[in-house]
């Protein structure tokens, strides 16, 4: 039996995040961006009120594409906010109205890698930085890969994408050594390694309802 104290008395049952029913008293748009906004909410909490600013994000998907030899597709891309060209798995915004997560993943894999996949599974769900952004990320595992036969025209930062296929274990080693620091890529690599070692028994239906994104604050995910 554990001797660790349990904060709040919530120590039993299945470990799981849960939605919070908090009454929003006021929500103001502080800055409107092309893709995401900055919003300020005033809400009831703990018998009083709190004010919090956050990035109101549309949500995103990412794809860990795994070929028949156990190699993962990573792409090098310039990211201005960090001042680096990082290695990451294909990913993109949920910015098409009415598009499902799986449909967005299929689109992004084609747009960034000119690939299609016959087998799709849900690998992982994330909140990337829940203290400051509403961004929900869904990571899919794509297998049985084939070329689309169409070279997608890429512009801006994506015009210099560099693809590379690496063994899953090599990607995990790069993450653990701190050479690959992209949070989504790190999560996907570690999740895929564990899932593979468990006979892929942890994978979920790719059409699983995306309640995390639906429950996110703000307007961008609506």
UniProtKB/TrEMBL annotation:
Domain of life of the organism encoding this protein: Bacteria
SUPFAM superfamilies in UniProt: Nudix (SSF55811)
Gene Ontology biological-process entries: nucleoside phosphate metabolic process; ribose phosphate metabolic process
UniProt keyword annotation of Hydrolase present: yes
GO molecular function: hydrolase activity
Coiled coil: none
Any one cellular-component term (Gene Ontology): cytosol
First and last residue of the signal peptide: none
Protein name per Swiss-Prot or TrEMBL: NUDIX hydrolase
Species of the source: Leucobacter edaphi
Species classification: Bacteria, Bacillati, Actinomycetota, Actinomycetes, Micrococcales
């Amino acid at each position: 039996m554990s001797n660790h104290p349990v904060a709040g008395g919530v120590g039993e049952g299945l470990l799981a995040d849960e939605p919070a029913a908090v009454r929003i008293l006021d929500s103001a748009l502080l800055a409107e961006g092309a893709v995401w906004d900055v919003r300020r909410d005033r809400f009831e909490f703990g018998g009083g009120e709190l004010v919090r600013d956050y990035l109101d994000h549309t949500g995103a998907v990412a794809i860990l594409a795994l070929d028949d030899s156990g190699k993962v597709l990573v792409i090098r891309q310039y990211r201005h906010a960090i001042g680096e060209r990082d290695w990451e798995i294909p990913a993109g915004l949920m910015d098409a109205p009415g598009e499902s997560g799986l449909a967005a993943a299929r689109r992004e894999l084609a747009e960034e890698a000119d690939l299609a996949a016959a087998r799709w599974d849900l690998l992982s769900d994330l909140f990337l930085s829940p203290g400051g952004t509403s961004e929900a990320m869904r990571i899919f595992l794509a297998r049985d890969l084939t070329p689309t036969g169409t070279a997608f025209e890429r512009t801006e930062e994506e015009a210099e994408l560099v693809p590379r296929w690496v063994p899953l274990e090599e990607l995990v080693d790069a993450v653990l050594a701190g050479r690959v620091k992209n949070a989504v890529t790190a999560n996907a690599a570690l999740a895929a390694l564990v899932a593979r070692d468990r006979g892929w028994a942890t994978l979920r239906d790719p059409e699983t309802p995306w309640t995390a994104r639906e429950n996110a604050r703000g307007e961008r995910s609506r």
